[in-house]
Amino acid sequence: MNENEFNEFDISNVNDLSDEELQEAFAAGLIKPGLNIPCEEKELKNNISGLKSKLKEFKLNLNWIETLDVVSTPAPMPPEAYDEVTKDQKIPKLKNYYKFNGAFQSKDFTNDFKREMLFHRQAQSAILEGLPRLKSSGILTKRPDDYFAEMVKSDQHMHKVRLNLQSRQTVIAQSERAKELRRLKKVGKKAQIETKLKQAEEKRKLMNDVKKYRKGLTKDLSFLDGKDNNKSNSAKNKTKLSAKSKKKRAAKDEKFGFGGRKKGSKRNTKESSAYIGKMSKKGKKTGFKTNKRLGKSKRIKKKSRK
């Protein structure tokens, strides 16, 4: 690239140059690394009068009740913090605090905790100033006990929401029911398989016992009853009654009897109804004798006499 070409070099046509021409222009100092886009420097203006005029155009002169704007200083510091700050008054200059309206304010705005505390105190002072103004205007600041907030959504929209929730609950219930049925089906199938295996095992055991009996290896036919020998001998394994319980049982048998027909045993008979005897002091009948049956030898002698 010649000197005339360097003089006629236009940075706006840099995209039309080849790589070699760009390298030569960069070596000559005509272009610099980066985006070589010409830009015009804007003139910065601080038009205060124009800003104030625009502010007057869109500013609304509303009542205080519509804006609730409160401009106040931060509330006084708590006594503990105030005592902590006043300890440093012996130092000639308080570097980290400044006094404003009789209260010490922190200059360390990089401390997040102190900055949040400053916001908190600012809000406290705004409340102390704003609440009396609201009460003087007759505006309630507390919600009544029987207050119910109105729904933002309409009743029709909430009805759709309820239907959607009910449909979801129905789907979940059906899914749980299907899972339970599948589980019960698996359990039932497993129980059925176990029952079949048990029956096959019993059949195999029965056939083995029959073969042993046919071959003469055993003479016990208890396997035909379908009960184990242990169950057949259950009567032998019962505990014996104690002597005291035996005596009690014998006394009851002697008093009430056992076996035979019990119904109608105390009814009157022909002999008892026709008998009129003396009654003892205890109310028992006396003089009533029953016909006793003769012994066998006497009955034989009586027959032989006839």
TrEMBL record:
PANTHER family for the chain: RRNA PROCESSING PROTEIN EBNA1-BINDING PROTEIN-RELATED, RRNA-PROCESSING PROTEIN EBP2-RELATED
Role according to the record: Required for the processing of the 27S pre-rRNA.
GO cellular component, one term: nucleolus
Keyword Coiled coil (UniProt): yes
Main subcellular location: nucleus
Coiled coil ranges: none
A family per Pfam: Ebp2
Family that this chain belongs to: Belongs to the EBP2 family.
Residue ranges, compositional bias (Basic residues): 237-250, 279-306
Keywords recorded for this protein, A-Z: Coiled coil, Nucleus, Ribosome biogenesis
GO process annotations (BP): ribosomal large subunit biogenesis; rRNA processing
Region (Disordered), start-end ranges: 221-306
Compartment(s): Nucleus, Nucleolus
Record carries keyword Coiled coil: yes
Protein name in UniProt: rRNA-processing protein EBP2
